[in-house]
Protein backbone atom coordinates (compact mmCIF):
# COMPACT_ATOMS: atom_id res chain seq x y z
CA UNK A 1 0.00 0.00 0.00
CA UNK A 2 2.20 2.76 -1.29
CA UNK A 3 -0.24 5.65 -1.13
CA UNK A 4 0.48 8.19 1.59
CA UNK A 5 -3.02 7.93 3.02
CA UNK A 6 -2.68 4.20 3.51
CA UNK A 7 0.89 3.93 4.77
CA UNK A 8 1.56 2.06 7.98
CA UNK A 9 4.82 2.40 9.86
CA UNK A 10 6.51 -0.90 10.74
CA UNK A 11 9.48 -1.30 13.02
CA UNK A 12 9.57 -4.79 14.53
CA UNK A 13 8.63 -8.25 13.35
CA UNK A 14 6.16 -8.54 16.25
CA UNK A 15 4.58 -5.15 15.58
CA UNK A 16 0.81 -5.75 15.46
CA UNK A 17 0.43 -3.23 12.63
CA UNK A 18 2.98 -5.14 10.55
CA UNK A 19 1.27 -8.43 11.36
CA UNK A 20 -2.06 -6.89 10.36
CA UNK A 21 -0.63 -5.56 7.09
CA UNK A 22 0.75 -8.99 6.19
CA UNK A 23 -2.54 -10.66 7.15
CA UNK A 24 -4.48 -8.11 5.11
CA UNK A 25 -2.33 -8.83 2.07
CA UNK A 26 -3.06 -12.52 2.49
CA UNK A 27 -6.80 -11.90 2.83
CA UNK A 28 -6.85 -9.55 -0.15
CA UNK A 29 -5.70 -12.30 -2.50
CA UNK A 30 -9.04 -14.10 -2.19
CA UNK A 31 -11.33 -11.32 -0.92
CA UNK A 32 -13.23 -10.86 -4.18
CA UNK A 33 -13.77 -14.59 -4.76
CA UNK A 34 -14.89 -15.14 -1.17
CA UNK A 35 -17.21 -12.16 -1.33
CA UNK A 36 -18.88 -13.67 -4.38
CA UNK A 37 -19.11 -17.09 -2.72
CA UNK A 38 -20.28 -15.91 0.69
CA UNK A 39 -20.50 -18.45 3.49
CA UNK A 40 -18.15 -19.06 6.39
CA UNK A 41 -14.46 -18.16 5.98
CA UNK A 42 -13.19 -20.96 8.19
CA UNK A 43 -9.63 -21.04 6.84
CA UNK A 44 -9.23 -17.27 6.91
CA UNK A 45 -10.51 -17.08 10.48
CA UNK A 46 -7.84 -19.58 11.42
CA UNK A 47 -5.28 -17.26 9.83
CA UNK A 48 -6.53 -14.53 12.16
CA UNK A 49 -6.25 -16.90 15.11
CA UNK A 50 -2.74 -17.95 14.10
CA UNK A 51 -1.67 -14.30 13.73
CA UNK A 52 -1.78 -13.83 17.49
CA UNK A 53 -3.98 -10.75 17.12
CA UNK A 54 -6.87 -12.22 19.12
CA UNK A 55 -5.06 -11.33 22.36
CA UNK A 56 -4.20 -7.79 21.24
CA UNK A 57 -6.55 -5.88 23.57
CA UNK A 58 -6.20 -8.20 26.58
CA UNK A 59 -4.19 -6.62 29.44
CA UNK A 60 -0.73 -8.02 30.08
CA UNK A 61 -1.87 -8.98 33.60
CA UNK A 62 -3.91 -11.76 31.97
CA UNK A 63 -1.23 -12.76 29.46
CA UNK A 64 -2.42 -10.54 26.62
CA UNK A 65 -0.52 -7.96 24.61
CA UNK A 66 -2.01 -4.95 26.39
CA UNK A 67 -2.28 -2.84 23.23
CA UNK A 68 -4.00 0.51 23.51
CA UNK A 69 -7.27 1.16 21.69
CA UNK A 70 -5.71 3.33 18.98
CA UNK A 71 -3.58 0.33 17.99
CA UNK A 72 -6.57 -2.03 18.00
CA UNK A 73 -8.53 0.34 15.78
CA UNK A 74 -5.61 0.76 13.39
CA UNK A 75 -5.49 -3.03 13.00
CA UNK A 76 -9.24 -3.11 12.28
CA UNK A 77 -8.82 -0.37 9.67
CA UNK A 78 -5.88 -2.14 8.00
CA UNK A 79 -7.85 -5.39 7.74
CA UNK A 80 -10.97 -3.58 6.51
CA UNK A 81 -9.09 -2.13 3.53
CA UNK A 82 -8.65 -5.70 2.29
CA UNK A 83 -11.61 -7.61 3.75
CA UNK A 84 -14.18 -5.69 5.76
CA UNK A 85 -16.18 -8.80 6.64
CA UNK A 86 -13.32 -10.44 8.49
CA UNK A 87 -12.26 -7.09 9.93
CA UNK A 88 -15.80 -6.92 11.34
CA UNK A 89 -15.46 -10.38 12.89
CA UNK A 90 -12.07 -9.44 14.33
CA UNK A 91 -13.33 -6.13 15.69
CA UNK A 92 -16.37 -7.72 17.31
CA UNK A 93 -14.12 -10.32 18.96
CA UNK A 94 -12.39 -7.45 20.74
CA UNK A 95 -15.75 -5.84 21.52
CA UNK A 96 -16.69 -8.92 23.53
CA UNK A 97 -13.38 -8.79 25.37
CA UNK A 98 -14.00 -5.12 26.13
CA UNK A 99 -17.40 -6.04 27.55
CA UNK A 100 -15.80 -8.52 29.93
CA UNK A 101 -13.43 -5.81 31.15
CA UNK A 102 -16.22 -3.24 31.52
CA UNK A 103 -18.98 -5.42 33.01
CA UNK A 104 -17.21 -8.38 34.55
CA UNK A 105 -16.04 -8.78 38.12
CA UNK A 106 -12.32 -9.13 38.86
CA UNK A 107 -12.77 -12.90 39.05
CA UNK A 108 -14.67 -13.03 35.76
CA UNK A 109 -12.07 -10.91 34.01
CA UNK A 110 -9.25 -13.13 35.21
CA UNK A 111 -11.12 -16.30 34.27
CA UNK A 112 -12.31 -15.38 30.79
CA UNK A 113 -9.44 -13.21 29.62
CA UNK A 114 -6.78 -15.62 30.84
CA UNK A 115 -8.68 -18.50 29.26
CA UNK A 116 -8.88 -16.56 25.98
CA UNK A 117 -5.09 -16.18 25.95
CA UNK A 118 -4.30 -19.73 27.00
CA UNK A 119 -6.72 -21.33 24.53
CA UNK A 120 -6.51 -18.64 21.81
CA UNK A 121 -10.29 -18.33 21.87
CA UNK A 122 -12.37 -16.57 19.22
CA UNK A 123 -15.37 -14.69 20.62
CA UNK A 124 -18.67 -14.06 18.85
CA UNK A 125 -21.64 -11.80 19.52
CA UNK A 126 -25.26 -12.59 20.41
CA UNK A 127 -26.02 -9.37 22.22
CA UNK A 128 -28.44 -7.58 19.89
CA UNK A 129 -30.18 -5.30 22.43
CA UNK A 130 -33.21 -4.61 20.21
CA UNK A 131 -34.00 -8.30 19.78
CA UNK A 132 -35.81 -9.37 22.95
CA UNK A 133 -36.81 -12.82 21.71
CA UNK A 134 -34.25 -14.52 23.94
CA UNK A 135 -35.63 -14.62 27.47
CA UNK A 136 -33.98 -15.50 30.76
CA UNK A 137 -35.92 -17.26 33.51
CA UNK A 138 -34.65 -17.68 37.06
CA UNK A 139 -33.07 -20.99 38.02
CA UNK A 140 -31.28 -22.34 41.11
CA UNK A 141 -27.90 -22.05 39.37
CA UNK A 142 -28.60 -18.69 37.71
CA UNK A 143 -30.80 -18.48 34.61
CA UNK A 144 -32.19 -20.57 31.77
CA UNK A 145 -32.13 -19.10 28.26
CA UNK A 146 -34.70 -19.69 25.51
CA UNK A 147 -35.24 -17.90 22.21
CA UNK A 148 -33.41 -16.44 19.21
CA UNK A 149 -30.87 -13.69 18.68
CA UNK A 150 -30.41 -12.07 15.27
CA UNK A 151 -27.43 -10.16 13.83
CA UNK A 152 -25.05 -12.38 15.80
CA UNK A 153 -21.78 -11.31 14.17
CA UNK A 154 -18.94 -13.78 14.39
CA UNK A 155 -21.11 -16.48 15.94
CA UNK A 156 -20.32 -19.19 13.37
CA UNK A 157 -16.99 -20.74 14.23
CA UNK A 158 -16.72 -18.93 17.56
CA UNK A 159 -15.67 -20.54 20.83
CA UNK A 160 -17.64 -18.32 23.21
CA UNK A 161 -20.54 -15.90 22.83
CA UNK A 162 -21.51 -12.77 24.71
CA UNK A 163 -25.29 -12.82 25.03
CA UNK A 164 -28.11 -10.61 26.23
CA UNK A 165 -31.51 -11.90 27.31
CA UNK A 166 -34.72 -10.26 28.44
CA UNK A 167 -35.72 -10.91 32.05
CA UNK A 168 -39.47 -10.50 32.26
CA UNK A 169 -39.66 -10.40 36.05
CA UNK A 170 -37.46 -7.30 36.30
CA UNK A 171 -38.38 -5.86 32.89
CA UNK A 172 -34.71 -5.54 32.07
CA UNK A 173 -31.94 -7.36 30.25
CA UNK A 174 -29.01 -9.36 31.51
CA UNK A 175 -25.64 -9.82 29.87
CA UNK A 176 -23.67 -13.04 30.10
CA UNK A 177 -21.29 -15.39 28.32
CA UNK A 178 -21.78 -18.97 27.15
CA UNK A 179 -19.69 -21.48 25.18
CA UNK A 180 -20.81 -21.55 21.55
CA UNK A 181 -20.99 -25.34 21.59
CA UNK A 182 -22.87 -25.63 24.87
CA UNK A 183 -25.86 -27.96 24.89
CA UNK A 184 -28.93 -26.11 23.62
CA UNK A 185 -27.00 -23.47 21.68
CA UNK A 186 -27.50 -23.68 17.90
CA UNK A 187 -25.64 -21.23 15.69
CA UNK A 188 -27.43 -20.82 12.37
CA UNK A 189 -25.37 -19.75 9.33
CA UNK A 190 -28.19 -17.95 7.55
CA UNK A 191 -26.81 -14.45 6.94
CA UNK A 192 -28.00 -13.39 3.47
CA UNK A 193 -27.36 -9.63 3.16
CA UNK A 194 -25.85 -8.36 -0.10
CA UNK A 195 -22.75 -7.12 1.73
CA UNK A 196 -20.50 -8.14 4.62
CA UNK A 197 -21.22 -11.66 3.45
CA UNK A 198 -18.66 -13.46 5.60
CA UNK A 199 -19.39 -11.84 8.95
CA UNK A 200 -21.24 -14.94 10.21
CA UNK A 201 -24.05 -12.63 11.40
CA UNK A 202 -26.99 -15.02 11.30
CA UNK A 203 -29.25 -16.22 14.10
CA UNK A 204 -28.36 -18.02 17.33
CA UNK A 205 -31.01 -20.25 18.91
CA UNK A 206 -31.16 -21.00 22.64
CA UNK A 207 -33.12 -24.00 23.88
CA UNK A 208 -33.09 -24.44 27.67
CA UNK A 209 -29.51 -23.20 27.87
CA UNK A 210 -28.02 -23.05 31.36
CA UNK A 211 -26.41 -19.74 32.31
CA UNK A 212 -24.67 -20.08 35.70
CA UNK A 213 -24.54 -16.96 37.83
CA UNK A 214 -20.73 -17.05 37.52
CA UNK A 215 -21.18 -16.32 33.79
CA UNK A 216 -23.54 -13.37 34.25
CA UNK A 217 -21.61 -10.17 33.62
CA UNK A 218 -24.52 -7.83 34.36
CA UNK A 219 -27.48 -9.11 36.32
CA UNK A 220 -31.01 -8.03 35.41
CA UNK A 221 -32.24 -4.92 37.16
CA UNK A 222 -28.73 -3.56 37.70
CA UNK A 223 -28.20 -0.07 36.33
CA UNK A 224 -25.15 0.21 34.11
CA UNK A 225 -22.35 2.41 35.41
CA UNK A 226 -20.72 5.14 33.32
CA UNK A 227 -17.78 2.76 32.92
CA UNK A 228 -20.00 -0.06 31.65
CA UNK A 229 -21.65 2.20 29.07
CA UNK A 230 -18.28 2.65 27.38
CA UNK A 231 -19.07 -0.62 25.59
CA UNK A 232 -21.31 1.14 23.09
CA UNK A 233 -18.52 3.61 22.36
CA UNK A 234 -16.08 0.76 21.73
CA UNK A 235 -18.62 -0.71 19.30
CA UNK A 236 -19.39 2.55 17.51
CA UNK A 237 -15.71 3.28 16.98
CA UNK A 238 -15.16 -0.23 15.61
CA UNK A 239 -17.78 0.60 12.99
CA UNK A 240 -16.23 3.98 12.21
CA UNK A 241 -12.90 2.30 11.52
CA UNK A 242 -14.55 -0.39 9.42
CA UNK A 243 -16.16 2.30 7.27
CA UNK A 244 -12.89 4.19 7.02
CA UNK A 245 -11.01 1.04 6.05
CA UNK A 246 -13.55 0.28 3.34
CA UNK A 247 -13.31 3.82 2.02
CA UNK A 248 -9.52 3.69 2.03
CA UNK A 249 -9.57 0.30 0.35
CA UNK A 250 -11.86 1.61 -2.40
CA UNK A 251 -9.68 4.70 -2.81
CA UNK A 252 -6.53 2.60 -3.21
CA UNK A 253 -8.25 0.19 -5.63
CA UNK A 254 -9.36 3.10 -7.80
CA UNK A 255 -5.91 4.71 -7.67
CA UNK A 256 -4.22 1.51 -8.81
CA UNK A 257 -6.83 0.92 -11.52
CA UNK A 258 -6.38 4.41 -12.92
CA UNK A 259 -2.61 3.99 -12.90
CA UNK A 260 -2.59 0.56 -14.55
CA UNK A 261 -5.88 -0.09 -16.36
CA UNK A 262 -7.88 3.03 -17.12
CA UNK A 263 -7.88 4.69 -20.54
CA UNK A 264 -8.07 8.47 -20.80
CA UNK A 265 -11.31 9.93 -22.11
CA UNK A 266 -10.91 11.03 -25.72
CA UNK A 267 -11.83 14.66 -24.95
CA UNK A 268 -9.34 15.00 -22.08
CA UNK A 269 -6.36 15.79 -24.27
CA UNK A 270 -4.02 13.69 -22.11
CA UNK A 271 -2.28 10.38 -22.79
CA UNK A 272 -3.10 8.68 -19.46
CA UNK A 273 -6.12 8.80 -17.20
CA UNK A 274 -4.18 9.93 -14.14
CA UNK A 275 -3.14 13.10 -15.97
CA UNK A 276 -6.74 14.18 -16.56
CA UNK A 277 -7.29 17.33 -14.44
CA UNK A 278 -10.93 16.39 -13.87
CA UNK A 279 -9.93 13.01 -12.39
CA UNK A 280 -7.26 14.73 -10.29
CA UNK A 281 -9.85 17.19 -9.02
CA UNK A 282 -12.31 14.44 -8.12
CA UNK A 283 -9.60 12.43 -6.39
CA UNK A 284 -8.82 15.48 -4.31
CA UNK A 285 -12.47 15.59 -3.26
CA UNK A 286 -12.38 11.93 -2.21
CA UNK A 287 -9.19 12.58 -0.25
CA UNK A 288 -10.94 15.41 1.60
CA UNK A 289 -13.70 13.04 2.67
CA UNK A 290 -11.31 10.43 4.07
CA UNK A 291 -8.75 12.65 5.77
CA UNK A 292 -10.98 14.47 8.31
CA UNK A 293 -12.80 11.24 9.08
CA UNK A 294 -9.45 9.60 9.81
CA UNK A 295 -8.32 12.46 12.05
CA UNK A 296 -11.53 12.40 14.07
CA UNK A 297 -11.45 8.60 14.39
CA UNK A 298 -7.88 8.70 15.68
CA UNK A 299 -8.77 11.45 18.16
CA UNK A 300 -11.79 9.50 19.43
CA UNK A 301 -9.63 6.39 19.85
CA UNK A 302 -7.22 8.33 22.05
CA UNK A 303 -10.09 9.66 24.16
CA UNK A 304 -11.65 6.21 24.48
CA UNK A 305 -8.34 4.75 25.59
CA UNK A 306 -7.93 7.45 28.23
CA UNK A 307 -11.38 6.83 29.70
CA UNK A 308 -11.09 3.04 29.42
CA UNK A 309 -7.98 3.19 31.59
CA UNK A 310 -9.76 5.28 34.23
CA UNK A 311 -11.89 2.25 35.08
CA UNK A 312 -14.61 2.89 37.65
CA UNK A 313 -13.50 6.52 37.99
CA UNK A 314 -15.11 7.44 34.66
CA UNK A 315 -17.81 10.07 35.12
CA UNK A 316 -21.07 10.48 33.20
CA UNK A 317 -19.80 13.83 31.89
CA UNK A 318 -16.61 12.28 30.53
CA UNK A 319 -18.55 9.43 28.99
CA UNK A 320 -20.92 11.89 27.31
CA UNK A 321 -18.10 13.97 25.88
CA UNK A 322 -16.54 10.80 24.49
CA UNK A 323 -19.87 9.91 22.87
CA UNK A 324 -19.75 13.25 21.05
CA UNK A 325 -16.24 12.54 19.75
CA UNK A 326 -17.19 9.05 18.64
CA UNK A 327 -20.38 10.29 16.94
CA UNK A 328 -18.38 12.90 15.02
CA UNK A 329 -15.99 10.22 13.80
CA UNK A 330 -18.73 7.75 12.96
CA UNK A 331 -20.81 10.23 10.95
CA UNK A 332 -17.84 11.35 8.84
CA UNK A 333 -16.61 7.77 8.38
CA UNK A 334 -20.11 6.70 7.33
CA UNK A 335 -20.32 9.47 4.74
CA UNK A 336 -16.76 8.94 3.50
CA UNK A 337 -17.15 5.18 3.16
CA UNK A 338 -20.44 5.37 1.24
CA UNK A 339 -19.41 8.30 -0.96
CA UNK A 340 -15.91 7.11 -1.86
CA UNK A 341 -16.97 3.54 -2.61
CA UNK A 342 -19.70 4.86 -4.89
CA UNK A 343 -17.89 7.75 -6.57
CA UNK A 344 -14.82 5.77 -7.63
CA UNK A 345 -16.75 4.32 -10.57
CA UNK A 346 -17.20 7.74 -12.15
CA UNK A 347 -13.41 7.99 -12.21
CA UNK A 348 -12.49 4.42 -13.16
CA UNK A 349 -15.06 4.04 -15.93
CA UNK A 350 -17.24 1.30 -17.36
CA UNK A 351 -14.61 -1.45 -17.65
CA UNK A 352 -13.91 -1.25 -13.92
CA UNK A 353 -17.36 -2.71 -13.22
CA UNK A 354 -16.22 -6.12 -14.41
CA UNK A 355 -16.85 -8.86 -11.86
CA UNK A 356 -13.20 -9.89 -12.07
CA UNK A 357 -12.27 -6.74 -10.15
CA UNK A 358 -15.13 -6.93 -7.66
CA UNK A 359 -14.91 -3.25 -6.80
CA UNK A 360 -18.62 -3.20 -6.05
CA UNK A 361 -17.92 -5.12 -2.86
CA UNK A 362 -16.61 -1.95 -1.20
CA UNK A 363 -19.92 -0.16 -1.70
CA UNK A 364 -22.05 -3.20 -0.85
CA UNK A 365 -20.11 -3.86 2.34
CA UNK A 366 -20.20 -0.30 3.62
CA UNK A 367 -23.82 0.20 2.55
CA UNK A 368 -24.96 -2.84 4.53
CA UNK A 369 -22.90 -2.08 7.62
CA UNK A 370 -23.77 1.63 7.79
CA UNK A 371 -27.39 0.59 8.31
CA UNK A 372 -26.46 -0.82 11.75
CA UNK A 373 -28.04 2.23 13.38
CA UNK A 374 -29.46 5.39 11.74
CA UNK A 375 -26.79 8.02 11.12
CA UNK A 376 -29.44 10.75 11.34
CA UNK A 377 -29.79 10.14 15.07
CA UNK A 378 -26.05 10.66 15.48
CA UNK A 379 -26.32 13.95 13.62
CA UNK A 380 -29.31 14.91 15.79
CA UNK A 381 -27.25 14.20 18.92
CA UNK A 382 -24.44 16.35 17.57
CA UNK A 383 -26.93 19.12 16.77
CA UNK A 384 -28.32 19.05 20.29
CA UNK A 385 -24.82 19.22 21.71
CA UNK A 386 -23.87 22.09 19.42
CA UNK A 387 -27.03 24.03 20.33
CA UNK A 388 -27.17 23.71 24.10
CA UNK A 389 -24.47 21.29 25.27
CA UNK A 390 -26.83 18.33 25.77
CA UNK A 391 -24.77 15.14 25.90
CA UNK A 392 -25.95 11.99 24.09
CA UNK A 393 -28.10 9.69 26.22
CA UNK A 394 -26.23 6.46 27.02
CA UNK A 395 -27.79 3.63 25.02
CA UNK A 396 -26.45 0.58 23.23
CA UNK A 397 -26.08 2.80 20.14
CA UNK A 398 -25.00 6.17 21.53
The sequence of SSEs as H and E is HHHHHEEEEEEEEHHHHH
Give me the CATH fold name of the largest domain: Butyryl-CoA Dehydrogenase, subunit A, domain 3
Which band does the percent of strand residues land in? 5-15%
CATH architecture of the largest domain: Up-down Bundle
Broad CATH class of the largest domain: Mainly Alpha
The side-by-side strand order for the widest beta sheet comes to 1-4-5-8
Structure summary, number of beta strands: 8
Mean pLDDT: 94
Number of helices: 10
- Rg on CA atoms, Å: 21 Å
Distance between the termini: 34 Å
Uncertain runs: 1-11
**Name of the CATH superfamily of the largest domain:** Butyryl-CoA Dehydrogenase, subunit A, domain 3
Overall shape = globular
Helix content: 40-55%
Main sheet characteristics: 4 strands, mixed
The domain tally reads 3
Please give the oligomerization state of what you see: single chain
Structural class: alpha+beta
Domain Acyl-CoA dehydrogenase/oxidase N-terminal: 23-117
InterPro entries: Acyl-CoA_DH_C, Acyl-CoA_Oxase/DH_mid-dom_sf, AcylCo_DH-like_C, AcylCoA_DH/ox_N, AcylCoA_DH/ox_N_sf, AcylCoA_DH/oxidase_NM_dom_sf
Protein name: Monooxygenase
Domain Acyl-CoA dehydrogenase C-terminal: 238-373
What distinguishing features does this structure have?
single chain; 398 residues; alpha+beta; Butyryl-Coa Dehydrogenase, subunit A, domain 1; Butyryl-CoA Dehydrogenase, subunit A, domain 2; Butyryl-CoA Dehydrogenase, subunit A, domain 3; 4-stranded mixed beta sheet; 4-stranded antiparallel beta sheet; 10 helices; 8 strands; 51% helix
Amino acid sequence: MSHALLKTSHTHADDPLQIAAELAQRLAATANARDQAGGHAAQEREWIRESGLLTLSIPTAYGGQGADWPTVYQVIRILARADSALAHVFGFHHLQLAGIQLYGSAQQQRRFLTQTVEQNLFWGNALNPLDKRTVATDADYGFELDGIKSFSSGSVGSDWLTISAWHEASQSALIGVVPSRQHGVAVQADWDAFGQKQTDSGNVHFNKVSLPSTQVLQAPGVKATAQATLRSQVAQLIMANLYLGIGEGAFEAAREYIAKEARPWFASGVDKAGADPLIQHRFGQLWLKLRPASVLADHAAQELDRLFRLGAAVTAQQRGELAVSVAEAKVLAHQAGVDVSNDIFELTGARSTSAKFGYDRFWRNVRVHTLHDPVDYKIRDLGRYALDGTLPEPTAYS
